[in-house]
């Protein structure tokens, strides 16, 4: 059985008090959960949120540097996050790739650092609108996986969650249809099977992200290869996020 997951990515949003309030609201949904819940929060709030000592939602960071320490002004390392008690990290989000110039090689270093710190890594991949319109979408996504993720040995793949986020669907209100998403997830699963084994592929959770909301989550999650969602905008309101979590019921 694959893990079902709903993860929020708050991005660069919320104040300290808003973050605490939202986190508590989501934590209070705990008794009804039919999936694992993660919150990828701004690093600034991690210490506060960890103080609540809750096992769910699991707290993750949105970004970290692969080197464990050193002269990298303004950065936070995975080693430091691990020391704080953080359990998970997002790697390869399209906003990091596009706005901050993160290359496949750098993402590969991050993947290795996450594994060596024992963090669960959520590896994001996805094509641009142009790449989809040219019919290159599967090739683009699989090449992202090959370049930064598939070098991991099989034993480490248990700490990997893949998130397919088509760039044209992020924050745009446009969602991939459940058929488009499932087709891509199936291609990703086949690639995992080809690189590792069918057993590994069957155990790998593949999430969809991009304008996922309560109104479309049930249809998306009903598809064979869609194991949950990575949620941006709709993770910022507890009732919307709850609606997505409840899509698993
Ligand atoms: P939206 O849900 O706001 O489209 O964002 C998706 C995303 O980027 C999650 O990482």
CATH topology-level name: TIM Barrel
- Return Rg in Å: 17 Å
CATH architecture: Alpha-Beta Barrel
Give the SSE string: EHEHEHEHHEHHEHHEHEH
Question: Characteristics of this structure?
Answer:
single chain, about 250 residues, alpha/beta, TIM Barrel, 8-stranded parallel β-barrel, 11 helices, globular, binds 1,3-dihydroxyacetonephosphate
How does this model look, in words?
With 249 residues, the protein is an alpha/beta fold. The chain has one domain: Aldolase class I (TIM Barrel, Alpha-Beta Barrel). The chain has eleven helices and eight strands. It has helices spanning 16-27, 46-50, 78-84, 94-99, 104-116, 129-133, 137-148, 178-195, 198-203, 214-221, 238-245, and strands at 5-9, 36-41, 58-61, 88-91, 120-125, 160-164, 206-209, 228-231. The protein has an eight-stranded parallel beta barrel with strand order 1-2-3-4-5-6-7-8, surrounded by five helices. Strand 3 (58-61), helix 3 (78-84) and strand 4 (88-91) form a beta-alpha-beta unit. Helix 7 runs parallel beside helix 8 and helix 10 runs parallel beside helix 11. The two termini are 16 Å apart. The structure holds 1,3-dihydroxyacetonephosphate (13P).
């Amino acid at each position: 059985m694959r893990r079902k997951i709903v993860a929020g990515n708050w991005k660069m949003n919320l104040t300290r008090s808003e973050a605490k309030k939202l986190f508590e609201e989501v934590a209070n949904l705990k008794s009804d959960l039919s999936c694992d819940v993660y919150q990828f929060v701004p690093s600034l709030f991690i210490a506060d949120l960890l103080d609540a000592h809750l096992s769910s939602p699991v707290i993750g960071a949105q970004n970290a540097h692969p080197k464990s320490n050193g002269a990298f002004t303004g950065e936070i390392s995975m080693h430091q996050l691990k020391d704080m008690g953080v359990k998970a990290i997002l790697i390869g989000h399209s906003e990091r790739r596009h706005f901050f110039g993160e290359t496949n090689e750098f993402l590969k270093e991050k993947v290795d650092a996450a594994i060596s710190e024992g963090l669960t890594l959520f590896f994001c991949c996805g094509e641009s609108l142009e790449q989809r319109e040219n019919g290159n979408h599967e090739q683009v996504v699989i090449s992202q996986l090959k370049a930064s993720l598939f070098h991991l040995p099989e034993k480490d793949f248990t700490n990997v969650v893949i998130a397919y986020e088509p760039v044209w669907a992020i924050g745009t209100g446009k969602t991939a249809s459940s058929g488009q998403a499932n087709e891509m997830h199936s291609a990703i699963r086949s690639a995992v099977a080809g690189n590792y084994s069918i057993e590994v592929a069957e155990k790998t959770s593949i999430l969809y992200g991009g304008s996922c909301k309560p109104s479309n989550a049930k249809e998306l999650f009903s598809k064979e290869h869609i194991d949950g969602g990575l949620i941006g905008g709709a993770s910022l309101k507890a009732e919307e996020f709850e609606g997505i979590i409840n899509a698993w019921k």
